[in-house]
Structures are given as structure tokens and as C-alpha cells.
Amino acid sequence: MAEDFPPGTADDRFPPIQIVGDPANQAATARQSRVDGDYFSVLQIPLVSGRIWTEEEGRLGLPLAVVNQAFVRNYSPNRSILGRTISLAEITQRAVSFGASRSPAFTAPEVQVIGVTADAINGGLGRPVLPNIYININILVFPEAPLLLRTQGDPSQYTATLRRTTHHAGAKFSYVSSYSLDQMLSRDETWRRQRLTAVLFGIFAVAALALALVGLYSVVAYLVAQRTQEFGIRLALGATRGHILWLVLKSNVVVIVSGTAIGLILSVFVRHESERWLEGAPQNPALMLGTAGLLILAATAACLSPARRAAMTQLSKILQAE
After folding, report:
1. For residues 12 and 91, what is the distance between their CA atoms, to the nearest angstrom?
2. Integer Cα distance of 193 and 183 in angstroms
3. Fewest C-beta atoms under 10 Å: which of 98, 192, 310, 322?
4. 0.70 surpassed by pTM
5. How far is CA 120 from CA 72, 124, 127, in A?
6. 3-class state of residue 65 by DSSP
């Protein structure tokens, strides 16, 4: 259960907070999210240090909270945030004005930080991660709250089951709607723009790879044709078909591997330019090595066909001559 829908939706609610023990004039604001303990496992946000409140602690409405790494970097870089108390006076005042009721354990507008989670997109796609404080949802109880479910298949098929389950549990929903993660992201203008850019880059990359393979195949086929007499002599002197295949592939594979290595080096220098077009896309070494491996395999396959045909053709001619 969570107060607002993730992930990466822009949020303008950044009420001021005060970390007890810090100077009172130190301005600190954070995106606040009221969630339950299962929120992090549903969204697969890993815990970096500390812990998440237990189900019993959540049910009792204990004033506990978890912050993200961006919060630590901004407001407590030189001191552990675990165990520190954060004043939520304005957040509490706003919540009460909107009809929220406090839990009996929430006697003062303060929460204790018991854990730190990894950063998750919370200010919009393509924007820096904002400081976030995750508050036990039961310390300030609102009349309604959305539910987040991790499902298999279309989430809309679970709407009726969810309505029956919540009704039997004592909660009555006047309106139940379901949105998949893809549907939520598709509403984000930044996501649509990035997706269009990625699709266009993908199309251009496939077209470039196809043209490169056609050109490589043509060049190798031409070079093999030029060496017809050499291959015939080698076969007549006892060379095997495998030897001919390796002879053709060896020289081309060296060129392919060398060209790929040069491409990887150049990609490091054009990284900033590519990030400008892809809005800060991170450099992924595994992805780069995988792409390089794909290029090597595809180029080798393009060389294999004319090399194999050369060996077969020459051997056939010798047999016919005999």
C-alpha cells in the first residue's frame, strides 16, 4: 500500500523537515511517501542499511521511517542517519487538515529513521533522484489509499478479485481502477520521448549492421574469388577443407576484432555526445561488450559463407579434373 503511484512521477510536495540535532536554520526538504512495509519488495527497491518496519510495527502505527540514499547524501553525508529523529511538523499539520487521523503511537510529529534504501526514480524520468522519506502509512490514516500489486499478466484481470478481497476485509472501495506500469509510464512525456529516440536508434543500428554485413560479405567473396588458384594449389598439395576455411577466416577475424576494439575505444570518447541525445543514459559495460560480441559473431558469420563455398568449390573442381 502506498500514498501515491510510482514510479518516477513528478511530485511537487516537498514540505520542509527538520533533522533533530542539526541547526534549526538548515533548510531541508524531501519528497514524502506514506507506504507500508511491503512497498519496497513489491517495487524491488533494495535495502542498503538498517531495516524495514515489521508488519506488527506497521499495524501499531509506530513512528518509523526509511530514507533513500539521496536523502543521506544531501542531509547526513558525514554521520549515520540510522536512529536519528526527523520532525514532520508541517507534514503532520497538512495531513490532519486533509482529514487524516493519527495513530495512538504517533504522539509527537516525529519519526525515527531505521533504514536506508537504494535510490529509485521519484522526480520524473530523466531527472535526478530526489531526497525521499518513506513514512509508515499507519501513523497518519487517511480515508483511502491506493494499492500496488505485482501481478503476472494483465493486472486488470485482478480488479474483481481485489474488490471482493478488500470487501471481505472490511474495506469498501467505491471505485477500483487498475493501471499497469506500462500504462503509467506511457503517460509521461519524457518516457515517450526517450522511447521514440531508443526505437529510432535501434532501427538505425539494425540498418547499419545489415549494410555492414552485406558489404563485408561482398568484400570477402571478392577476395576469395581472387585467390581461387591459390586455394586450388593448396588443395592439390593435400590441404584439407578445414584448413582452407581457417585460412580465409583468420585474416578476416583479425580485422573484425581489431575494428571492434577500435570502435569500443571510440565509443568512450563519444560518450558525452550520445548521452546528450539519450538524456543521460548510463554507460553500461556489459551492454557494450555484448554488442561488440554480437558484431564479431555477425561479421564472422558473414565471412563463413564465402569461405566455406570457396573450399567446397575448389575441392569439387579438383575431383572433376581427376
Report:
1. 13
2. 15
3. 322
4. no
5. 14, 10, 11
6. strand
Nearest to 296 by CA among 266, 239, 255: 255
| Coil vs helix vs strand at 73 | helix
Backbone angles phi, psi at 26, to 5 degrees: -80, 110
12-50 confidence digits (pLDDT tens) = 557 788 888 777 656 678 888 888 888 888 888 899 999
Read off the DSSP letter of residue 130: P
Q: Measure the CA–CA gap between 96 and 100, rounded to whole angstroms.
A: 5
Query: All 3 cell numbers of residue 273?
Result: 555526445
Question: Phi, psi (5° rounding) for residue 37?
Answer: -65, -20
Average pLDDT of the chain? 76
Count of C-beta atoms within a 10 Å radius of residue 308: 16
Q: What share of the chain is helix, strand, coil (3-state, %, to 5)?
A: 50, 10, 35
pLDDT tens digits along 122-136 = 776 667 888 889 988
In the chain the first and final C-alpha atoms are separated, in Å, by 83
Cα separation of 67 and 133, whole Å? 4
User: Of 51, 177, 160, 193, nearest to 114 (Cα)?
Assistant: 51
What's the longest Cα–Cα distance across the chain? 102
AA identity, residue 304 = L
Share of the chain above pLDDT 70, in %: 70
Displacement of CA 312 from its chain's centroid (Å): 48
Closest CA to 130 of 199, 223, 29, 206: 29
Asked if omega into 46 is within 30° of 0 (cis), the reply is no
Q: Which amino acid is at 113?
A: V
